[in-house]
Amino acid sequence: MAITVIxxxxxxxxxRDELQIVFERLLAQHSSGLRGFFGSRRYENxxxxxxxxxxxxxxxxxxxxxxxxxxxxxxxxASLAEHVAAPFRVTVLNPLT
Length: 97
Known about the structure:
- With 97 residues, the chain is an alpha+beta fold.
- 30% of the residues lie in helices and 34% in strands.
- It has one domain (3-93): Alpha-Beta Plaits, CATH 3.30.70.
- The protein has a four-stranded antiparallel sheet with strand order 2-3-1-4.
- The longest helix has 15 residues, at 16-30.
C-alpha cells in the first residue's frame, strides 16, 4: 500500500536556502530510478523560516525501508548533516481505508 512520508529538516538560523540547494542536489543525483519512489515536493513552513519540509510518496513502507538502509550504508545523506541544526523529524503516513 502506498505511503506518504513527511520529513522536516531544520536548517541553521537563516540558512534554509543553503539546505534546500544541498537537498535538491541530493534528490537529483539519487532519486532517479529509485524502486518504489513516486516523487516528492519541498515546502517552506510559514511559521518557521528555517524549516524545510519534504512530502514524499512511496509505493510501500518496505520500499522506503530498503532505500533508507541502503542510503545509510552508503552515506547518501551525510552531506546534509552540516546543514541541519537538529535531527530530521520523519512521519510515515498510511492512508485510512
